[in-house]
Amino acid sequence: MNRNRFFILIAILMLLTGCTRSSFLPLPSTYVTTPDRAASPSQTSPASQESKAETNRLPEGISEDFMAFIKSQYGTSVYDRLTASFQPDSDGGGLWHELTGSSLSVLKDRYSGILNSPDTARSHRIWLKESSDPNQVVLSFAGDISFADGYANMSAYHTRGGIDSCILPNVRARMAAADIMMINNEFCYSRRGAPLTGKSFTFRADPSMVQNLNSLSVDLVSLANNHVYDYGPEALLDTLDTLSGAGIPYAGAGRNIEEAKEPVYFISGGMKISFVCATQIERSIRFTKEAGTDSPGVLRTDNPDLYLAAVEKAKSDSDFVVAFIHWGTEGTNYFEEDQQHLARQLINHGAGLVIGCHPHVLQGIEYYQGVPIVYSLGNFWFNSRTIPTGLMEAVITPSGLNKLQFIPCIQENCSTDLVVSPDKKQKAFQFMEQLSSSITIDTEGIIHPLPE
């Protein structure tokens, strides 16, 4: 029998005995299918493995659905660069703004739908404001202002024909140039209520005076002070309604404690900036009520925990937090230990800038952990006294606070104007340096911290 016939005979015998090839030689693994069992990692396609790896790299708070939204809105290239930037301790930082023109906080709000319309945004205490520069936001702050009748500044207002003759054109132009302008509203708007018994000075303005805020390009006000409650709860409620009717957001007071402690948010320059306000005044006799569960009032710092928690919340929901605080001793140019202690707590809880008012005079500036504390901006337009005052401008970028600049002004003869003389400007800067610790102010008013 030749060799070929031998192999043919063997094959015939295998068929006759019912043997198959699988009894001897296993099929290649590519032919083995197990449709009712999940594929092992080694059996997953390269694309699936890549997708799973990207999911595993997502930082906390960033979901697959959110990233799918980013890909659909900004394309695969942006999506790939962002996912490649993720690290265990980093969510991409400023790359979001660089690639999309919006920070991660803003993108999350857009994804959630709360920015679909201005009305929807405002229902979440978010205001939309276009910035002059898409990569930065200029914030401007002023101290105490009052439109309350019965005082010298309002007599001048009525005699001279309105706010344009009291806060002069140079100042108004500088205020209008800011992207977001904030001021302390040191009075209530109402025709109701009675002055609080035993209080020496009480301030109430006719609700029509709210038009002045629009004339001054004011974008939001703090109500956390010791005069917004001067005519009781009804007048405070009228104040809230008046400001809302004029489209002016407010912080630091509310119909209840939840509203009083809630931050106000602005989206501008592709960033989300929050403002949280509270008052440390009064220290002995407390005429100004703190808001309760069902009662109007302000947010106080007698126990600072509520304020610190509000700052912490604002930090988690935004890119930059401004803590605006009413504190200090009237007529005193030097800040005190309790102000300093509270400021440092605020910074430890997330504030990127602390702005103070109440003393009716300027106080100094210091830095703590790289964050500036402006202790008091004094009166902006409040009475007939001749006193130095000013605007404080802060430039915010996706990296944080980029510049802080003092713009000196003078309140004199019931008017407020810019200081324009070079000599007087330098004296104003030197005066602020004398009140401050650990800063210098250059010839343009830009504030620099001294090396620690």
From TrEMBL:
Biased composition (Low complexity): 38-50
Source organism of the structure: Lacrimispora amygdalina
Residues that span the membrane, as ranges: none
Similarity section: Belongs to the CapA family.
Top-level lineage group: Bacteria
Positions of region (Disordered): 34-57
Stretches assigned to the Capsule synthesis protein CapA domain: 138-384
Name listed for the protein in its UniProt record: Capsule synthesis protein CapA domain-containing protein
Xref: CDD domains: MPP_CapA
InterPro entries named in the record: Capsule_synth_CapA, CW_Biosynth-Accessory, Metallo-depent_PP-like
